[in-house]
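Worked example 3 (structure in, sequence out).
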């Protein structure tokens, strides 16, 4: 099949809905398949998709740390220095770029000194933010850095601005990073780590408009400047400006006050402080905060509501970027979406404060659509951290005692690994529409990138749960022979992996065929594909 006509829409390359190519006929398509034409600009130099867009988040919340990551050295569950080996092996396959820790809301009630030194002497506290359970402090700084090293990730540490002090944060940084033999550096060495730890990101508080102290934006900005100045990284190897990136708190879903105030302060800053990023927290809530909706056992109605709830991320990123552009047109400060993901009602029978939910094919599609938004906006979005890593909210992994299962979201993260540090290639397509009742949504999504070795990668999502999509991809200046990769789909939108059925939602090999100088892909309903062009 050839191309009958080529027509360019008026919108720029970033506009995914602009009509680019119209296939002449829909030959050899599966019955009911919707034709979709995708045009990839292979020669354009798009922004680098920073690997930190695929970051994760591990908070002291429910069984996210205790049970999910940390089982202790005496556990019968195989572990290395208390960190469970099955979880580490699974996470290594995702090439997790960074892990944000210890929270979340928990970060603003965390006192680091309680988590170092002999375990038996560490005080038990209440985790007031999450379930009111005992926080034993068995997993502290050394255990976190050990975990990050075991999975090959950088550390993203959030300091306590809400209930801590600037001195406490400065001491933590000295403890972790001082090379010179200060008292705190010697204490670190005595606790088992002679050299400094590397900190790639330092979060200056968390949601200080809410759980982090309910501060006004102006009040937070004044506090933030003090933390940005005094919480110094003392390792000469990390002393270069910006080597440890400081992330200030930005907006909550719907309110830009923090971003506006922080960016204005940054524009007017004096020599003594700086930041390299501003955060954005935005969750996918299918219904309302009070009644979010079930994580499993739902049908197309719930699915169709979840997709627009997640596509709001596009507008949130655009609004924050517009504010940042006003103060920082050179894009020196990055936007870090350091909490995002789908948030549903907790699994019935679990502690509601543990935020435990099932993870379905719907959630995999939510993950792919969000990652696509972040990648498309990579010029400003330098990092993102899905909430959360294990057993909490939109998790990669669920555990139950010694058992572990990989979620559909995990599979998306593994399939998207080739996009880490690749260069974005402009893509044009007519997304078409998927309609359900009152809801109308873009039917397909597509992102392309070129990796460091020159390979071209394409991610495709068919949002429509009923109709297949027949995608014809044209690559400017390239005559592909084929494309091969993986496809993720399942029987139902709420299909998920149970401990007894771990393979219900699993990637399978997927290929595109060469056709009329381009590529043809038959995408099943509700599916995600990632392929490399050959
Ligand atoms: O991810 C769960 C919680 O959501 C975090 O602790 C908090 O920052 C956000 O409100």
């Amino acid at each position: 099949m050839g191309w009958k006509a080529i027509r360019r829409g008026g919108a720029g390359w970033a506009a995914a809905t602009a009509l680019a190519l119209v296939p002449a006929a829909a030959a050899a398509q599966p019955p009911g398949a919707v034709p979709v034409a995708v045009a990839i600009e292979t020669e354009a130099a798009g922004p680098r998709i920073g690997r930190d867009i695929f970051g994760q988040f591990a908070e002291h919340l429910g069984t996210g740390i205790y049970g999910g990551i940390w089982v202790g050295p005496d556990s019968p569950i195989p572990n290395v220095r208390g960190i469970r080996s099955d979880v580490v092996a699974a996470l290594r396959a995702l090439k997790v770029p960074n892990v944000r820790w210890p929270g979340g809301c928990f970060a603003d009630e965390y006192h680091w000194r309680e988590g170092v030194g002999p375990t038996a002497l560490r005080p038990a506290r209440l985790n007031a933010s999450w379930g009111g359970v005992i926080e034993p402090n068995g997993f502290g700084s050394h255990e976190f850095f050990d975990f990050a090293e075991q999975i090959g990730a950088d550390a993203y540490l959030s300091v306590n601005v809400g209930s801590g002090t600037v001195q406490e944060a400065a001491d933590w940084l000295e403890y972790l990073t001082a090379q010179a033999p200060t008292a705190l550096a010697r204490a670190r060495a005595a606790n088992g780590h002679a050299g400094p730890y590397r900190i790639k990101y330092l979060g200056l508080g968390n949601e200080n408009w809410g759980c982090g102290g309910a501060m006004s934006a102006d009040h937070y900005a004044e506090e933030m400047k003090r933390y940005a100045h005094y919480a110094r990284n003392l390792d000469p190897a990390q002393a270069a400006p910006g080597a440890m990136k400081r992330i200030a708190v930005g907006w909550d879903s719907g309110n830009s006050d923090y971003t506006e105030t922080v960016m204005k302060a940054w524009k007017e800053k004096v020599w003594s402080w700086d930041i390299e990023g501003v955060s954005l927290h935005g969750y996918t809530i299918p219904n309302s905060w009070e009644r979010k909706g079930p994580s499993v056992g739902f049908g197309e109605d719930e699915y169709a509501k979840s997709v627009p709830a997640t596509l709001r991320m596009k507008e949130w990123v655009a609004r924050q970027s517009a504010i940042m552009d006003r103060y920082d047109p050179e894009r020196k400060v990055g936007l870090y979406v350091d909490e995002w993901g789908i948030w549903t009602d907790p699994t019935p029978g679990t502690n509601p404060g543990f935020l435990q939910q099932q993870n379905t094919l719907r959630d995999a599609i939510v993950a792919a659509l969000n990652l696509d938004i972040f990648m498309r906006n990579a010029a400003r979005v330098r990092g993102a951290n899905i909430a959360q890593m294990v057993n909490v909210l939109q998790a990669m992994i669920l555990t139950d005692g010694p058992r572990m299962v990989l979620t559909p979201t995990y599979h998306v993260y593994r399939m998207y690994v080739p996009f880490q540090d690749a260069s974005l290639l402009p893509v044009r397509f007519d997304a078409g529409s998927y309609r359900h009742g009152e809801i109308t949504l873009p039917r397909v999504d597509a992102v392309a990138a070129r990796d460091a070795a020159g390979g071209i990668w394409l991610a495709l999502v068919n949002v429509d749960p009923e109709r297949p999509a027949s995608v014809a991809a044209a690559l400017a200046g390239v005559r592909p022979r084929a494309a091969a990769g993986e496809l993720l789909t399942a029987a139902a939108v709420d299909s998920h992996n149970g401990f007894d059925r771990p393979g219900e939602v699993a990637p399978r090999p997927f290929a595109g065929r060469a056709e009329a100088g381009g590529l043809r892909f038959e995408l099943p309903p509700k599916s995600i594909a990632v392929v490399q062009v050959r």
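Notes: Confidence is low (pLDDT under 50) at residues 1-26. The CA atoms of residues 170 and 231 lie 4 Å apart.
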